[in-house]
Design brief:
By secondary structure, this protein is mainly α. The protein has helices at 2-28, 37-54. The longest helix is centred in the first third of the chain and has 27 residues, at 2-28. The protein is elongated.
């Protein structure tokens, strides 16, 4: 159970990095809003999966 919590936390960290990276790319002008959609979708998947896995042992 502890391993699934650690994997969940890793997915949550990945979601944060994806959100921050796409936001920084948009603010910096490197990415258009349409180009950030796949990153936001992947971040949402990581957020949901990480949330489920991090609560697996609770």
């Amino acid at each position: 159970m502890r391993r699934s919590r650690l994997v969940g936390q890793a997915f949550l960290a990945l979601a944060c990095l994806l959100f921050l990276g796409s936001a920084a790319g948009m603010v910096g002008g490197a990415l258009s809003p349409a180009e950030t959609v796949p990153y936001a979708g992947a971040a949402l998947c990581c957020l949901v999966g990480g949330g489920i896995l991090s609560r697996a042992g609770a």
